[in-house]
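In the lab's daily routine, each protein ends up as an entry in a very long ledger. A line of letters takes care of the sequence, but it says nothing directly about the fold. The three-dimensional part falls to structure tokens, numbers that each stand for a local backbone shape. The outcome of that step, for a single protein, is printed below.
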Amino acid sequence: MNIHSCCNDYDYCNLDLRLKFPEAQGFNAIHPIILAALVLLILLICALIFATFFCKKKTQQKKKKKKQSFNDVEGSVASRDPLIPGQSLKDLLDHTTSGSGLPLLVQRSIARQIQLLEIIGKGRFGEVWRGRWRGESVAVKIFSSRDEQSWFREVEIYQTVMLRNDSILGFIAADNKDNGTWTQLWLITDYHERGSLFDYLSKNTVDIPGMLKMAASIANGLAHLHMEILGTQGKPAIAHRDLKSKNILVKSNGTCAIADLGLAVRYDSMTNSVDIPPNTRVGTKRYLAPEVLDDSISINHFDSFKRADIYSFGLCIWEIARRCNVGGIFEEYQLPYYDVVPFDPTLDDMRKLVCVDRQRPQIPNRWQSCEALRVVSKIMKECWYQNAAARLTALRIKKTIANLEAQEDLKM
């Protein structure tokens, strides 16, 4: 419908025209509903945009606060290794699987972060250094690339799950480092400033509690090695095969820790097999059990290796007992069989002495007048039996010494 109107009465008369349009049917009734819906939709969209923005900002603030808190806690000791939780070496190791050392990612770079300070020992494998990492002292055993097999075997044993024990040297990491001329293979462990049992006894004597503490801790470490722990995170039974005073370290609290597991063997109960390392070296001749010296040991029977460890343990206890100061009386430090074989005996020397002549270290008469030394000397003799099956077990020795310690405590 066309609606129009015109005028010509005066100038600009069309300004006063008022056109009237017919109302569209139903338009005024629908219009308010559409308008309300549009307003509501716009409000919902605005609310959604605001909520999204608010949540995103809140999340960012939480992340920033968490990151700042983490940096505040870790920054002082782990700024170089932000992946590591904890504030000390002990804390770091406590966060890892028992016995496996630091996280592998850290182990792969630890050699570049350690400052070597001084040599603390030398052996056939190489050198042992005192080093510093993250402000703490560590021991660094450095193998040459020619001894890669020995290094790999020792690392493999130390990384055994559930191996960590107070009486076994704590493993930290393994790494390699190129020094420009050859590749060094590093084994990083806990550092004990008192050195080996050999070094300590050479310069110091011990009292009866000190002797028992040392003997008990060595027995505890050996019992833990020999014991099999069943389960999904179990531990195989392990025999040391080179137990001697130079492979036992003295800790600051007077207890001992067994070290140097390069010749150790493991027993797999699932397959009933002994995992023997491909290493021709059998141990230290002076400490070898009779059955090892005359090659009568059954290498397919794991208990044979444990019994050989017990024989060596008896010799180590003899070394400690000689240095036990009772009433100002003690013996000078000596290695086992010092009076009947050369300083560096041959296998033939030891075979004749131990297997043919069946000699054992001498027991001083004064030991019989001291109850503690008398019991300890009895333990030694039961570790030295020619018949390996008759020797004590590490667990039995541990319990016997614990009872002796309890008796000594009651006397004090």
Q: What stands out?
A: The domain at 197-411 is CATH 1.10.510.10 (Transferase(Phosphotransferase); domain 1).
